[in-house]
Each structure stands twice: as structure tokens, then as C-alpha cells.
Amino acid sequence: MGFPKHRLRRLRATEGFRRMVRETALSVDDVIMPLFVRSGKGVRRPISSLPGIHQFSPDTAATEAVEIEQLGIPATILFGIPDQKNSKGTSGWDPNGVVQSAIRKIKEKTSNLVVITDVCLCEYTDHGHCGVVDGDTILNDPTLDLLAKMALSHVEAGADMVAPSDMMDGRVAAIRKALDDSGYSDIPILSYAAKYASVFYGPFRDAAESPPQFGDRSTYQMDAANGNEALREVALDLEEGADIVMVKPGISYLDIIWRVKQRFGCPVATYNVSGEYAMVKAAAERGWIDERGVALEMLISMKRAGTDLILTYWSKDVARWLSESS
Ligand code: PBG
Predict the structure, then answer these.
(1) pTM higher than the cut 0.90
(2) pLDDT above 80 (res 121)
(3) With contact defined as beta carbons under 8 Å apart, do 85 and 125 qualify?
(4) Is the Cβ atom of 230 under 6 angstroms away from ligand 1?
């Protein structure tokens, strides 16, 4: 009788068919591994809220970077935990700071690994905010110069790309100009363009020892209820010279990834943030969910939504999981 004519189950019947019609793929080329760096030697300190993730000293970060490169992961992003914090975060542009030292060590030991650096004041300021503070106010314009200094100092140490995560207005233009003026016009900027004021960052703030000491980040990071505003943020960052734009967090913001990719068609990155990782780890530890299955499903959903790159604490696992399954 020919009913039903269309049976979508036909192409689901075998692994061969499923492989042939699979629309999206997650590849090791898509992931970027975050690394937390502090001072010292031989440090490999576990972070309790991020099981499997550590704080490294520059030497052990380099060893870790070698492993990351050997796993086929194309890039790492560095976050610094300095010994000294002050109101302006001046340790952020110390040529011998933790990130600068780690970059040099990593560059000595690896050959093609792309080294990206997070550019933000919150890890370096005693108040834990991403900008210069006046009373309870986070100042925009006086922060720009400091971010530009930090970005330039990372590049001078050998960073391949800089990633401003502060959400000050105009920072991409300020950083672009500082890099261009110093002869680094070929260094790309990965801007945290649509970065939301999210409670999913909780475990990261333990890892980077960077929680704000008063208030929260809602006067500079975006309101979770806003989507159109994300497109404006992205448009401005692209206009100011961003090469890749990021949506952050990932899993609760798939609509934003989709809209950004549809509208601009530019390279898009997504940050699969600490809280997204930690909650899966916690549930998996209790035997409630399957970590590998959930992680891969989350990451493929970001790819399906249109992201090109994913910053994820699962990067090393992804490399292993994908090589096992092929
Ligand atoms: C620094 C920064 C944060 C994250 C990346 N860069 C924290 C924040 O804005 O409070 C969060 C990453 C994560 O949660 O994994 N501004």
C-alpha cells in the first residue's frame, strides 16, 4: 500500500547509513584546551571544583602543552594566577609574569600548538573585577589601555592570538591598535563578544582565584535574557577588528550561537564553561549519567548550532574518545 512512503528510520537502520547521513561532526580540530598557570616549579595542583583539571607552573604547563599537541589538539588558552594582585592588575603585563613565562616555555617545547591568552584584569586585580574600579563602579575607558598593555605583553612573549574576556566597550579596537602600532598586525583577536553574566562560571573563579570581592559582573557582562543585544555586541567587535567571535557559556546559549553564525557567517567560538563541565562530572561521579555520552552530546549540539571552535575542559578526553571510536 506504500504507507508510509517516507520512513526516516530506513537511514537509521545501520551504523553505515548513520555515518553517511550524519550532518555534523566533532573533530579534535575544533577544541581548545584551557590551562591555568601560576608561579613556581613542578606545580600540578588539582582544582577541586574541576575534577581532572590542574593549576600548573610554567614548566609543567609546557609538559602539559606537549601532551595536548601530541593528542592532536590545535590550541591552548592560558589563564594566569599571579602572586601579586593590586587595584590595576599590573602583574598582568609584567614581561616575567606567569602567563608570559608559560608562553615562552610552551613555545620552547612545542612546534605547532597555537597559544592563545585570555586577556582580562580580574585574575590580576585585588578586587577581582575585570576593569578599573572607582568606588562601586567599574570604569570602562581607563581599563582599555591596561587591556591593550596586557595583550601586547602576551604577544611580545610569543602568544599567537589574544582573547579579551573583560566585556569593556571598545576593547577590541584598543587592542587592535596597540598590536598594529607595535608591528603585530598579523596577530588575530578572538573576542569574547557575547559573554553573559553567568553563574556557570563559579568553578572557574575557584580555579583562577578571581571571584569579584564586591558586587557581581552584571554591569559589564550580558543579561541572560538578551539575544538581540548579543548580535550588536558581535557586530561591534567585528567592526573593531575581531577575527573570531565567542559566545559564552555554550549549552544554555545555543540560540545565540545559531543567530551569530547565521547573521555574520564569521568564525565562531563557544566556551563550554566550568559549570557545564563540573555539573556533568559531579553527576557522573554519582553514577547518574554517563560522562562521555553527555559531554559529546553537549559538544555536538554546539557544532550543530553553528560554532566552529569550542573551548572545553574535555579537550583531551575528546581527542581520546574520538580516536577510540574511529
Ligand atoms: C575572565 C574569565 C572568566 C571565564 C573566562 N575568562 C570568568 C568570569 O568572567 O568571571 C570563565 C570560564 C569558565 O567558567 O570556564 N573574565
Answers:
(1) yes
(2) yes
(3) yes
(4) no
Which of 31, 171, 204 is the best mutation target for the ligand 1 pocket, counting ligand atoms within 8 Å of the beta carbon and taking the most?
Answer: 204
Whole-number Å distance, alpha carbon 15 to ligand 1 midpoint, is: 39
Q: Buried b vs exposed e over 160-189: b needs ≥16 C-beta within 10 Å?
A: bbbbbbbbbeebbbbbbebbeeeebeebbb
Q: Which atom of ligand 1 is nearest to the CA of 166?
A: 16
Task: Output the pLDDT for position 192.
Answer: 98
**3-state SS class at 264:** helix
pLDDT-derived band at 206 (thresholds 50, 70, 90) equals: confident
The mean per-residue pLDDT over the stretch 223-244 comes to: 98
Residue 276 CB–ligand 1 contact under 6 Å: no
Kindly list the structural domains of the chain, giving each domain's residue range(s) and its CATH number in brackets, ordered by start: 24-325 (3.20.20.70)
